[in-house]
Write a structure and sequence with these properties.
Largest sheet: 6 strands, antiparallel
Strand order of the largest sheet: 8-7-6-11-10-9
Shape: rod-shaped
Distance between the termini: 121 Å
Order of helices and strands: HEEHHHEEEHEEEHEEEHEHEHHEEHEHE
Number of helices: 12
Number of strands: 17
Mean pLDDT: 85
Strand content: 25-35%
């Protein structure tokens, strides 16, 4: 029979440990003649350890540990020996399968021949870590398949930190800093900087989230690619400051495809300039936004185009159509609207043109450019009707009807010329 009094050395010095919050157990390894551990003799247990190991003091003191209802993995013979006789201080993590608990165990020797253990139940921490690991793996899979990077935006100083990239093969930790001076950034396309600046300002107000498409690149030597950027505002629980977390997804191929489809829908297939339907809507939008500005509307008609088709064939006629379109593109500005009405008729709106002198020079340049581009071996002539508004709030129909009337006056007077009318 093992008793407490002959088990523990100077038991009174350990009475202070009885109410300690940490679970403490002291054990004396029992050795054979070859100094090998054959059993572990209980020497001391405090209240916290009783509760943790689900054992009473009387049961603990009166039986060898091998016969107690304890998981044998909690106490290791080798560690007990080295702690008791070699003064080893050791820390181990153990899992006790019988009671399905995880423990952190620290060993130390209160006296030679005795091993003391401070036992901490870490099952809740382990389960939390395991849950966090599983959650991280889920997020990692989600990120790998749905995003290219995530970022933090500090609303206080506009600093952006991109700290996670996905290369579709795995997640790569990479911290990228973008200066708050957007204009100096080589990561964001210059044409999109104002968009990002506007969003960040709005997010400082009542806006909580926003999705935009912008052009970005990972390195200064790379080409820009279209990315969908999602911003989400949140409040830091400690500082109470608002910050932004978001993610970016490469949508370059999709946007290029949609732009190509839009371009195909808006342009004339033969010439590449706007078709009649698209141009009409763009002109209506333009004149509604520039109601007090004079514009010049041009109608251009190929002279004797039927004769060209009949004489040289439709493939040559198609070349003539493309030649005129190219000549118009080299005549008008990028901000002007150039289009093909259909057949051998073209149109253009020169924005902000109010002087007849400038309109005349454009008509002459059109004919000059056609002559310079013509390598077909026969003359190509056009008749041009122009309408310029004097009044505010003009309509598309007014522009068209006045220019059409001017065009037919030229047709009636021998073609190859231009007529300009105010309204």
């Amino acid at each position: 029979m093992i008793t407490n009094s002959d088990s523990i050395p100077n038991i009174k010095q350990f009475s202070v440990l009885n109410d300690a919050p940490s679970s403490i157990v002291i054990i004396k390894p029992i050795l054979d003649e070859n100094k090998r551990v054959i059993d572990l003799k209980p020497a001391y247990i405090n209240k916290a350890a009783e509760h943790l190991l689900a054992i009473t003091k009387s049961n603990f003191y009166n039986e060898p540990i091998s016969k107690l209802p304890l998981d044998p993995s909690i106490f290791n013979n080798e560690i007990c020996y080295k702690t008791a006789y070699e003064g080893l201080n050791n820390k181990v993590k153990l899992y006790a399968p019988k009671i399905s608990r995880h423990f952190d165990i620290s060993s130390w020797s209160p006296k030679k021949g005795y091993a003391a253990f401070t036992i901490r139940d870490t099952s809740d921490i382990y389960e939390l870590q395991e849950a966090s690991t599983k959650q991280y793996e889920k997020i990692k899979v989600l990120l790998q398949n749905s995003t290219d990077f995530i970022f933090d935006l500090d609303l206080k100083d506009n600093n952006i930190y991109i700290d996670l990239y996905s290369d579709k093969k795995g997640l790569v930790q990479k911290k990228v800093y973008i200066s708050p001076e957007w204009s100096k950034s080589k990561i964001i396309h210059q044409d999109d900087i104002s968009v990002v600046e506007k969003i960040t300002e709005n997010l400082k107000g009542e806006l909580d989230s926003k999705t935009i498409n912008v052009r970005l690149r990972k390195n200064a030597e790379d080409d820009f690619q279209w990315y969908k950027i999602v911003f989400h505002k949140y409040q830091d629980p400690d500082s109470k400051n608002y910050n932004i977390i978001g993610y970016g997804l490469n949508v370059h191929d999709e946007i290029v495809r949609l732009n190509n489809l839009k371009e195909q829908a808006e342009t004339d297939r033969m010439t590449g300039i706007y078709n009649n339907i698209t141009a009409k809507q763009k002109i209506i939008n333009t004149i509604s936004n520039t109601q007090n500005i004079a514009n010049a509307f041009f109608l251009i008609d190929l002279d004797d185009f039927k004769t060209i088709n009949d004489t040289y064939g439709h493939p040559v006629g198609d070349k003539v159509i493309r030649l005129v379109a190219e000549s118009l593109e080299s005549t008008f500005r990028c901000s002007d609207i150039i289009f093909r009405l259909g057949g051998d008729e073209f149109g253009a709106l020169a924005i902000g043109v109010k002087k007849i002198k400038y309109a005349k020079s454009l008509c002459e340049i059109i004919n000059k450019n056609i002559d310079q581009n013509n390598n077909l071996g026969f003359p190509i002539n056009v008749s041009i009707g122009v309408s310029i508004n004097k009044s505010s709030n003009p309509t598309y129909e007014e522009y068209y009807n006045i220019a059409d009337k001017a065009l037919y006056e030229i047709k009636d007077h021998g073609k190859k010329g231009y007529e300009i009318k105010y309204f």
